[in-house]
Amino acid sequence: MLYRTTAARSVLRALQSSNASVARSALSNNVFKAPLTSSARFPVRPTTTPNLALAIRKPVTTALVRHASTAHKEGEEDTDMMAGMKAEAKVIKDTFSLASVPKEALYLGMAGVIPYLATSLETVYLSWEIKTAAVAGDGLLFSGQSAELLLHLLEPVQVGYGAVILSFLGAVHWGLEWAGYGGKYGYRRYAAGIVAPAVAWPTLLLPVEYALISQFLAFTFLYYNDARAAAAGRAPAWYGMYRFVLTFIVGASIVASLIGREQISGTLTGEHTIKDKINALIFLQKKEKEEAEARKRAELEDAE
C-alpha cells in the first residue's frame, strides 16, 4: 500500500515537471525567437538625420554662410558704434562752439588771458628751477636765488592782473545796464560790478597762495552769475559759453601756479604776512616821527 502511494506521487511529480518544461519552452519561443528571426531577416542599417547628412554633404557651404552672417552683424555693430561716437562728438562741438561770439570780443578775450597763462607757465618753470637747484646745486638757466627772486617779482604781476580782470568783468554788467539790455534791473545789476572789484583788490594784501585761491573762487562765482544772466536774457546768449572758455583757461592757470608753488613750499624763504607788513609800517611811521621830533629839538637848540 505504501509502495503504491509513493509510486503515485512520483508519477504526479513527473507529469507536473514535464508540463512546466513545455510551458517554459513555449514562452521562450514566443518571446525570444521572433525578434531573433526578424533581426536576422532585416539587418540593422545605420540611419542619419537630415541635418547631419546636410552637414556631411556641404560642410564648406554652411561654414561660409555662418561666417558671412557673423561678419555682417559685426559690421553693423561697428557702423552703429561709429555713428554714435560721431553724433556725440557733434553734440560736444555744438555745445562748446564759439561761432556766435563776435570776432572782436573773441580775439580780445583770448588775448586777455595770455598774460595770465604766461605768468602761470613762468611760475611753474621757476618753481622747477628752484627745486632743481635745491637738489642738484644749480638750475638749468638760473641759479636757485635768481629763480626765487624772479618768482617773487612775478607774484604781484599775476595777482594784480587777476584783480584787473575781475574788475573788468564786473564793469561789463554796468555797461549792460546802461544799454538797457534785456530791460532795466537797477541795483541788482550794478551789484555785480561793485562786488567784483571789492573782492579782487584786497587779494593783493594776502599771501600769494591765498590770493590765487581767492581769485579762483571769484572767477568761478562771476562765471556762474554771468551764465545765469545769459540764460535769463540779461546778457547775450553767447556770453555764457564765452565766459566758460575764458574762465576755464584762467582757472587752469591758477591751479597750475598753485601746484608749482606747492612743489617748493619748503624751499622758499618765509614770506611776510599781512600782520608783518602792518607791524613794519607802524614801526616805520613811529621811527620817522621820532626822527622828525629829534630834528625839531636839534633846530631849537641851534636857534638858542
TrEMBL record:
InterPro entries on file: DUF3429 (IPR021836)
Question: Transmembrane ranges?
Answer: 105-128, 159-179, 191-224, 236-259
Keywords (alphabetical) are:
Membrane, Transmembrane, Transmembrane helix
For this protein, the record's PANTHER family field holds: TRANSMEMBRANE PROTEIN 69 (PTHR15887:SF1)
Instruction: Write down what this protein is called.
Output: Transmembrane protein 69
